């Protein structure tokens, strides 16, 4: 029953000939849109980005202030837990290192929170050291709302549900708080190379 | 030992009856805004193969979340404060 109901888009497990393709993944040319709720359309003048939680002083940027931060071009492969991977996606965004610059914290975890009440949780060390960005452009264009615009988290080394769309801030926490999918059976860490799809993988 | 405390098997009859119901006419109350309605009138987001999210038409709160999990489902009813079945 599960098989019939949920397997429409799943492809059978293929032999992975491309070493850049994690186990169980297939190559996708398009950019599938997966949304667990209505697409928010927050006007830029109301948009802000915050760093809160276990910090000495919370930080906040308006859209203008955020866009004035140094940004980087990022080209990475992305891997969705529903088994599609897309090679060489091109983004522009602000490194999380830049956003956390000068923040004093003893936190070991971070929850990304978003418009639409989506959350995802990550160890702090998985979003620092040049591993994560808040992206505002895709393929040279402003990020479209259906792909998470005006800005989304980009953590390409983990399954793509960790790259939260419509992100509005990072909450630094001393303990780990499973997010939207992590609390619904999906793996807490989500490393595509270790095929960490579900709890217990 | 409390003599009235039995293991879960003792509730198999009523639970089996409750969890086999006509879904579309079941009534819920939303834990987000308190709105009551029929499940058949709620909003469904089918997230490709990730899962199915049923949301309150009043406030978009996730009433029921359903995800495939290997050969089973994982269901979270936590967004409803009650379900009236039957």
Question: If you had to describe this structure to a student in words, what would you say it looks like?
Answer:
The complex is a heterodimer of chains A (201) and B (86). By secondary structure, chain A is mainly beta. Chain A has one domain: Sulfite Oxidase, Chain A, domain 2, CATH 3.90.420.10. Chain A is built from three helices and eleven strands. Chain A has helices spanning 2-6, 63-67, 96-99, and strands spanning 26-27, 48-53, 59-62, 72-79, 84-95, 109-114, 119-123, 133-138, 141-142, 152-154, 167-173. In chain A, strands 1, 4, 5, 8, 9 and 10 form a six-stranded mixed β-sheet that branches. In chain A, strands 3-2-11-6-7 form a five-stranded mixed β-sheet. Chain A is globular and about 45 Å long. The relative contact order of chain A is 0.19. The mean pLDDT of chain A is 93. Chain B is globular and about 45 Å long. Chain B has one helix at residues 12-18; strands at residues 27-30, 36-38, 43-47, 51-55, 62-69, 72-76, 80-84. The longest helix of chain B is centred in the first third of the chain and has 7 residues, at 12-18. Chain B has a domain at 41-86. With 86 residues, chain B is mostly beta strands. Chain B is built from one helix and seven strands. The model of chain B has no long low-confidence stretch (mean pLDDT 92). Chain B starts with 11 loop residues before the first helix and ends with a strand. In chain B, strands 3-4-5-6 form a four-stranded antiparallel β-sheet, with no helix packed on it. A three-stranded antiparallel β-sheet of chain B has the order 2-1-7, with no helix packed on it. Chain A: InterPro entries: OxRdtase_Mopterin-bd_dom, OxRdtase_Mopterin-bd_sf. Chain A: Residues 37-181 form the Oxidoreductase molybdopterin-binding domain. Chain A: This is Oxidoreductase molybdopterin-binding domain-containing protein. Chain A: It holds the Pfam family Oxidored_molyb.
């Amino acid at each position: 029953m599960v098989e019939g109901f949920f397997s429409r888009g799943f492809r059978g497990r293929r032999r992975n000939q491309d070493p850049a393709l994690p186990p169980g993944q297939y190559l996708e040319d398009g950019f599938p849109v997966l949304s667990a709720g209505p697409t928010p359309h927050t006007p830029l003048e109301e948009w802000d980005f915050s760093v809160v939680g276990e910090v000495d002083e919370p930080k906040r940027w308006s859209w203008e202030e955020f866009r004035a931060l140094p940004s980087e071009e990022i080209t990475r492969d992305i891997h969705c837990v529903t088994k599609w991977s897309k090679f060489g996606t091109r983004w522009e965004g602000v490194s999380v290192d830049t956003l956390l610059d000068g923040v004093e914290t003893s936190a070991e975890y971070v929850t990304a929170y978003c418009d639409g009440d989506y959350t995802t949780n990550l160890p702090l060390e998985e979003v620092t050291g040049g591993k994560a960005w808040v992206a505002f452009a895709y393929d040279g264009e402003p990020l479209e709302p259906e792909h998470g615009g005006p800005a989304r988290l980009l953590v390409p080394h983990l399954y793509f549900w960790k790259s939260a769309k419509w992100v509005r801030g990072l909450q630094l926490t001393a303990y780990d708080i499973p997010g939207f999918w992590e609390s619904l059976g999906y793996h807490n860490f989500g490393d595509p190379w270790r095929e960490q799809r579900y709890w217990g993988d | 030992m409390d003599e009235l405390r039995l293991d879960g098997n003792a509730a198999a009859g009523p639970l089996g009856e409750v969890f086999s119901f006509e879904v579309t006419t079941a009534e819920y109350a939303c834990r987000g805004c308190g709105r009551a309605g029929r499940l058949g009138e709620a909003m469904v987001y089918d997230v490709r193969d990730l899962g199915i999210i049923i949301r309150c038409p009043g406030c978009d709160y996730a009433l029921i979340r359903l995800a495939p999990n290997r050969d089973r489902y994982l269901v979270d009813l936590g967004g409803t404060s009650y379900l009236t079945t039957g």
